[in-house]
Amino acid sequence: TSVEIPSGVSKIGDYAFGYCDSLGNTTIPSSVTSIAQNAFCNSSADLTIYCSQNTVASRFAKENGIRRAEFLYTVLGDGTAEITAYYENATEVEIPSLVDGYVVTSIGDQSFIFSDVKSVTIPDTVTKIDDFAFCQCNSLKSVKMPKVLTYLGEYAFAYTAISHITIPEGIKYIHSCA
Asked: How far apart are CA 56 and CA 120, in angstroms?
């Protein structure tokens, strides 16, 4: 139902995921430089490709009409990753716990601002959701927060359609208008 291709894989060959009628979220690292045209043929209508922006996977998804969730990220000083931007046509998003082999620990300032996401699942590797991260996501109704979250920035979920949210027990900072 989901696949996370490890960083370092460079090619996805003929029919690799063809006829996988239950395949949903598929994470493809930027190390992939070649995807066969029929690699995902006759796969599930629920297929969403998670990838970095301006990669082979991104172009493949666009050219083949596959839903995609594209992320930009920055590698932090401690060797983990922060999601810095989201470009989408997927509205139900599961943020990956790894991007190109880096553990995602932070959702950056304004990274999803104004996007059309309706629901977001944040992995249990994320400890920080920065200022304005999901601000003005007017369609956002549902968020699954990570259990290890310690920091929730200013206006992080301001101006969304969320009516109920569960804040994890270990939270240390909830800033104004969060």
From this structure: 25
